[in-house]
Structure formats: C-alpha cells, structure tokens
C-alpha cells in the first residue's frame, strides 16, 4: 500500500520518522511521503523528515502544553496550510493517508482528529489514523485527553489503528526511556502491514496469487472503527512442510501476546500475512492458521496472503479490523472516564476548597 504519513505532535513526528526509516532500510518504498506537523518548534528540529510549524500566530512555536482543545482549534485555523504542504506529496499513486499521533498529549491529541476530517474532505483515498494510547502509568490528563481524542478520531477516520504504549514495552523499560524501542517495534509491525501489498514478483515475473494485495489490507480496515496489529516470528526450516507448526504458533503468538492492543481479539475482519521465503511458506500451515484466526476472532471475513521476503525467518503479521467491542478498549475508556471524573472533582475542589471534605467521615469542629 503506497502511503503518505503525517505525524502530528511529538509522538506523531517520531513514529512517522521511524516508519519512514524502516521502510527505506527495507527498500519497500511503501512510504511515499512523510511530514511532521507540530505547534512546538523544538519538537520538529531534530526530525529528519519534512516539517511544518502551525499555530505560530497564537502560540509562537511554544506548543500547547497538554491543551488538546487549543491544538484542535489551531489545526482548524491552519488546516489549509497543512493541506497545501501535503498536496504535492499526496499524488495519484497514493493509496492511503495515515495521520499518526500520540492521543494522550496536546498537539497530536487535538490536531490529529481535525486533520483527519480535513483530509477526508479533499482526498478520495482512505484516511486512517495511527494512534498511540498512553501507558496506564501516565497521569489522568493523558488518559482523559486520549479518551476524548479517540472518541473523535474513530468517528472521523476510515479506521483507527491503535497501539497501546503498554503493549510492546519490555518489562524493564520505563515510560519514556523505552520510546525508541517501542517506536522501532511499531515501525516494523505497521511497516510490514503497509509494505505487504507492495511485493512484486521476482525479476518482474507475475506476482503469485497467494501474495497479499493492498486491497486486502484496505478491505480488512473497511469495517472502520478500531484496528490492531499483531506480529511474531520464528526461525524457518528450509522446507515448507517443516514449517507448518511454525506458521501456526507464530500466528497464535501474534494474536495472544503480540497485539498492539492486547486482548483485543474479537474482530469484524482479519488479515493474516505470512512473511518469509516463498518456498518456505507452507500452504497447509497458512490455511490452518487462517481457520484458527476465524475461530479466535469470531470473524467470517478472514483474509490471508504471503509476503515474499528474503529471510531465514518466517513471520506472522495479523491485522484485525473492527475490534472496538473488545474488553481492552472498554478498559481503556473506563480508565479515561474515571480520570475525567477525578479531574472534574479536582477542579471543583479548586474552586470550592470546602468541597474536598464533602466525602470525608470527619465532622467539623463547629
Ligand atoms: P504532543 O506533542 O502535544 O502531541 O504530545 P506527545 O506526542 O508527547 O504525546 C504524549 C503521548 O504520547 C503520551 O501518552 C506519551 O506516552 C506518548 N509518546 C510521546 N512520545 C512518544 C514516542 O516517541 N513513542 C510512543 N510510542 N509514544 C510516545
């Protein structure tokens, strides 16, 4: 799938960069353009991709702090500028646009849903969001911002691919110090999904029928709502027949422990991509894994295909569409609602200091 990436905010810019770099390293050429947009000048400075500063007249390059409502209004005001900057990059060959953002911050959280809406107004290709959910260890403001942003972006985008910042964090990573590692993992997983349909036949020969096509990625995301991606790999034996159980176990691992949104396994649609040397990928194994995926996701629309790659490993990449009814999404939304209530209470306490004692089992002195 030939895509144009727009990173909004700090996380958006870094993740878009990581995706563009992975795509270039692998020589896939699925990423046809990448732009980082921010209200904070400092966050754009170190990025190697093209950048655009917005909201300058109002925040003077200093960012919005955690104010995602301000970010939404700045994006609204400067939308034409962003669309103009993108128009040269979104050429006729682009098959989708991805707006990338951390949903818990300010600029990305507020700016991404507005930009998605504007891009959909002027472009015919699907506009997807790639959103990062805050770790459960992050504070209430991040949870509330992410909840509000998610609600809006899911409504506006053709689909929202979610990555939970707790999903791929190593046990010893702290929030923050682990970002580069998370971003690399994210880039590999999402980057493989983007590139899956870009495989061409060796030496210009026809692409075998078993190779996954971009339209299958788009069909899987057509369910709209929230999508998740899973990944796992294993060493491949030289003969396809010997890899049947490896395909099965990597598929299972991709879904059970490798999902970007853990436990979000109830899906409307799914795509299983088996990546590796074509003559090492067992048809029987892929079929079996696909049937397992049907049962596990409860979806009748499970597509499958190969992604020919020269590697001594075999990988399962699973894309799930329409996972919004999953328990994990509900858990996050409950966390966001709870944080919103807490923040409201805190604000009330601030305006009325006595209210802090309302629920206490303490009697006043008089
Ligand atoms: P903004 O610049 O105002 O949009 O704010 P950020 O992009 O810093 O958004 C903050 C949210 O994104 C928090 O929930 C962080 O955990 C997350 N975040 C910040 N930087 C990164 C990053 O490089 N990678 C990932 N995966 N998440 C990040």
UniProtKB/TrEMBL annotation:
The keyword Transcription regulation does not apply. GO terms for cellular component: cytoplasm. Coiled coil: none annotated. Keywords: Cell shape, Cytoplasm, GTP-binding, Nucleotide-binding. One of its GO terms (molecular function) is GTP binding. It comes from the Archaea. GO terms for biological process: regulation of cell shape. GTP binds at residues 10-14, 106-108, 138, 165, 183. Residues 2-201 form the Tubulin/FtsZ GTPase domain. Residues 340-366 are annotated as: Disordered. PANTHER family: CELL DIVISION PROTEIN FTSZ-RELATED, TUBULIN-LIKE PROTEIN CETZ. Involved in cell shape control. This is Tubulin-like protein CetZ. It comes from Halopenitus salinus. The lineage of its organism: Archaea, Methanobacteriati, Methanobacteriota, Stenosarchaea group, Halobacteria.
């Amino acid at each position: 799938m030939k895509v144009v990436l727009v990173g909004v905010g700090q996380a958006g810019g870094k993740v878009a960069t990581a995706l563009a770099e992975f795509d270039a390293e692998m020589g896939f050429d699925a990423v046809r353009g990448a732009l980082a947009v921010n209200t904070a000048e400092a966050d754009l400075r170190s990025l190697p991709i093209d950048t655009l500063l917005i909201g300058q007249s109002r925040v003077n390059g200093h960012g919005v702090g955690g104010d995602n409502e301000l970010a939404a209004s700045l994006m609204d005001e400067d939308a034409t500028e962003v669309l103009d900057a993108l128009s040269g990059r979104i050429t006729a060959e682009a098959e989708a646009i991805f707006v990338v953002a951390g949903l818990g911050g300010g600029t990305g959280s507020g700016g991404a849903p507005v930009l998605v809406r504007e891009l959909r107004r002027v472009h015919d290709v699907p506009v997807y969001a790639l959103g990062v959910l805050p770790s459960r260890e992050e504070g209430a403001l991040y949870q509330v911002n992410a909840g509000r942003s998610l609600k809006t972006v899911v409504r506006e985008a053709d689909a929202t691919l979610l990555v939970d910042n707790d999903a791929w964090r190593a046990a010893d990573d702290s929030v923050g110090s682990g970002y580069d590692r998370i971003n690399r993992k994210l880039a590999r997983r999402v980057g493989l999904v983007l590139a899956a349909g870009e495989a061409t036949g060796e030496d210009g020969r026809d692409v075998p029928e078993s190779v996954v096509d971009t339209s299958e990625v788009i069909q899987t995301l057509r369910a709209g709502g929230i999508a998740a991606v899973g990944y796992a790999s294993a060493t491949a034996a030289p003969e396809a027949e010997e890899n049947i159980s490896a395909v099965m176990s990597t598929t299972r691992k991709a879904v059970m422990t490798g999902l970007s949104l853990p436990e979000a396994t109830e899906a409307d649609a799914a795509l299983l991509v088996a990546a590796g040397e074509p003559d090492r990928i067992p048809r029987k194994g892929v079929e079996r894994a696909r049937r397992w995926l049907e049962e596990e996701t409860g979806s009748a629309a499970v597509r499958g295909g190969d992604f020919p790659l020269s590697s001594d490993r075999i990988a399962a990449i699973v894309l799930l569409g329409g996972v919004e009814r999953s328990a994990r999404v509900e858990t996050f939304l409950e966390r966001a609602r709870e944080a919103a209530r807490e923040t409201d209470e805190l604000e009330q306490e601030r305006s009325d200091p006595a209210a802090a004692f309302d629920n206490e089992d303490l009697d006043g002195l008089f």
